[in-house]
């Protein structure tokens, strides 16, 4: 009986030691060890890439990436800033890439005069680029195109 | 004292030297007071002392580059909305008495009322900017001193074209400091029949559209 008591005690001691050791490990949030009231570090903020040439697609039918900063460009109920340049009417004057034909179809495949409301939120598929370097190497290779 | 009287004009002699001096001082005080009052109403704190401004346009403006940016150089309300030159400033200030009237009427005293009027209010500002060749923008943003090589690809490409066509800042840069009103971009039914935004198209291009009506 005494032996079992000693065993339980030893076990409890071991458990509490392990517990305290894990409690010492500080879980770091995305804002680092900063307290809520402190100003977070500004040197590690990802910045939008400068305007660049069109970024080649990585695979067929990939929604093209946005090769420019979109700071201050709002898509609201009242106004879609993207479509101020990329719509078919405006693209020629602004030199922006025209919205693809597929965006002019409603869900019954009926052709509309402008983009379909279901395509209104451009940033759902098209994303701007930041200077965030990949954390791991990307070995993705697209499937071969037809005829390749 | 006798010798000084010799140099006094007749009208000073008539009203007396002391009265003339008092009038002179009163002039300074009134002119100074007038300018002080004018400047007092030309500050951001004055503009946002009305909740109409503070709750609507000022909040939106806080998200824009004219409020916060990397160098901390700011444009406050009057920098864009009140001309710097004396003449146009007086005209704008007199027009602003209408805004005081509508403040009393409570024309835009809720965000709902404000948004319902937003297209009209925005159009007034766009028209004013267009008429003055975006004078208030150009107080800081001088085309002659723009270095296109320092601009982004898109800006560097578009600016010379736009200036050559005689366009003015507001033609393209609408809704940069405040939210836009409903704009009909022909996307679905949401904004159908709302205001159509212009990009400084030539009047010649506008004429056929007017004939259609």
Describe the overall structure:
The complex is a heterodimer of chains A (about 150) and B (about 210). Chain A has a domain at about 50-130: Orthogonal Bundle (Flavocytochrome C3, Chain A, domain 2). Chain A contains three helices and no strands. Chain A has helices at about 1-25, 85, 90-95. In chain A, about 5% of the residues are buried. The mean pLDDT of chain A is about 80. Chain B has 13 helices and no strands. Chain B is elongated. Chain B has helices at about 1-5, 10-15, 15-40, 45, 50-60, 75-80, 85-95, 95-105, 110-130, 135-140, 155-165, 170, 205-210. Chain B has three domains: about 15-40; about 45-140, no CATH class; about 140-170, no CATH class. The chains are: A mainly alpha (about 150), B mainly alpha (about 210). At the A-B interface, helix 3 of A face helix 11 of B.
As residue ranges, the low-confidence spans of chain A are none
Q: What name is given to the CATH topology of the domain at 50-132 in chain A?
A: Flavocytochrome C3, Chain A, domain 2
Task: Please state the overall shape of chain A, judged from the principal axes of the Cα atoms.
Answer: elongated
Pair with the most extensive interface? A-B, 27 and 25 residues
Order of helices and strands of chain A: HHH
**CATH architecture identity of the domain at 50-132 in chain A:** Orthogonal Bundle
Work out the radius of gyration of chain B.
24 Å
Helix run count of chain B: 13
User: What is the helix fraction of residues of chain A, given as a range?
Assistant: 10-25%
Quaternary organisation of the protein chains: heterodimer
- The sequence of SSEs of chain B as H and E is HHHHHHHHHHHHH
Got a strand count of chain A? Answer: 0
Q: Strand share of the residues of chain B?
A: under 5%
Cα shape of chain B? elongated
């Amino acid at each position: 009986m005494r032996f079992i008591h000693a065993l339980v005690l030893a076990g409890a001691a071991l458990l509490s030691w392990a517990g305290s050791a894990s409690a010492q490990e500080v879980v770091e949030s995305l804002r680092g060890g900063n307290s809520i009231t402190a100003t977070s570090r500004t040197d590690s903020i990802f910045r939008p890439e400068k305007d660049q040439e069109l970024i080649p697609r990585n695979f067929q039918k990939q929604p093209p990436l946005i090769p420019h900063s979109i700071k201050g460009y709002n898509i609201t109920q009242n106004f879609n800033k993207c479509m101020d340049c990329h719509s078919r009417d405006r693209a020629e004057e602004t030199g922006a890439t025209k919205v693809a034909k597929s965006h002019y179809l409603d869900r019954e495949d009926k052709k509309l005069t402008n983009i379909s409301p279901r395509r209104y939120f451009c940033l759902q598929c098209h994303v701007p680029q930041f200077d965030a370097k990949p954390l791991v190497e990307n070995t993705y290779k697209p499937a071969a195109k037809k005829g390749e | 004292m006798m010798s000084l009287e010799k140099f006094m004009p007749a009208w000073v002699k008539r009203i007396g030297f002391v009265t003339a001096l008092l009038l002179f001082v009163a002039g300074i005080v009134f002119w100074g007071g007038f300018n002080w009052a004018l400047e007092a109403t030309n500050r951001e704190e004055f503009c946002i002392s009305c909740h109409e401004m503070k709750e609507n346009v000022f909040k939106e403006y806080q998200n824009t580059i004219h409020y916060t940016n990397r160098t901390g150089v700011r444009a406050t309300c009057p920098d864009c909305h009140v001309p710097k030159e004396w003449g146009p400033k007086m005209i704008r200030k007199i027009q602003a008495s209408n805004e005081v009237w509508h403040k009393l009427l409570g024309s835009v005293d809720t965000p709902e009322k404000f948004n319902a009027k937003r297209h009209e209010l925005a159009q007034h500002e766009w028209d004013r900017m267009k008429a003055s060749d975006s004078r208030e923008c150009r107080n800081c943003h001088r085309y002659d001193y723009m270095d296109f090589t320092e601009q982004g690809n898109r800006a560097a490409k578009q600016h010379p074209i736009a200036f050559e066509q005689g366009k003015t800042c507001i033609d393209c840069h609408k809704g940069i400091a405040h939210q836009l009103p409903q704009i009909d971009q022909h996307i679905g039914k949401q904004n159908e029949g709302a205001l159509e935004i212009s990009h400084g198209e030539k009047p010649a291009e506008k004429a056929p559209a007017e004939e259609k009506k």
